[in-house]
């Protein structure tokens, strides 16, 4: 096992030189998490908008469930997806287990409730401001949803970035359904766990550095979007 100083020096050299294995793992991580975020937004944003404007019996209970799903245990999600995609499961015929597609499904299930719950809160507050205007214009529910999504676009981008940050840092679910297979399903978080257990601290630290940079980039993007939204509000 390398000393801390040696491991950190080797990690920096791997990042600067663009080590092939490192680049492959990083790009797979980004691809899986980006696709999962897009799918989660396609599900969560309309769902959040509809719940924000609708009033029906059982709505409070639904909100409780939606908020509770934000804290879904990743290993439980991974287990449920595994059971469905395994050969004996109902979707086993698709052959998706231990593929990037299975990891995308697991991440989508994890972050869709986050996107739905956060967007619901944003859009419900906005709907409260415009409710009278919407009624005076006699807009349909679909038109109201469309108007809310567009008007809250900057806040919803922040929601999407929060979902992406959650996805890129996920390890429990993706290691169960992906199997951490080299050159196929090995992403940054699972690779860090593996390389640390093997004692290869250089690769683990290199991946950790990249993951931290991505996390900082996501937070910087969130702040940028918020500043842009604030400037737009004052125009």
TrEMBL record:
Task: Enumerate the Gene3D superfamilies for this protein.
Answer: MetI-like (1.10.3720.10)
User: Does the record carry Cell division as a key word?
Assistant: no
Where on the tree of life does the source sit, at the highest rank? Bacteria
UniProt keyword Transport, yes or no: yes
Which stretches make up the ABC transmembrane type-1 domain? 26-222
What is the similarity comment for this entry?
Belongs to the binding-protein-dependent transport system permease family.
- Classification via PANTHER family: PERMEASE COMPONENT OF TUNGSTATE ABC TRANSPORTER (PTHR43632:SF1)
NCBIfam families recorded for this chain?
A: ABC_perm1
The protein in question is named ABC transporter permease
- Per the UniProt record, the source organism is Lutimaribacter marinistellae
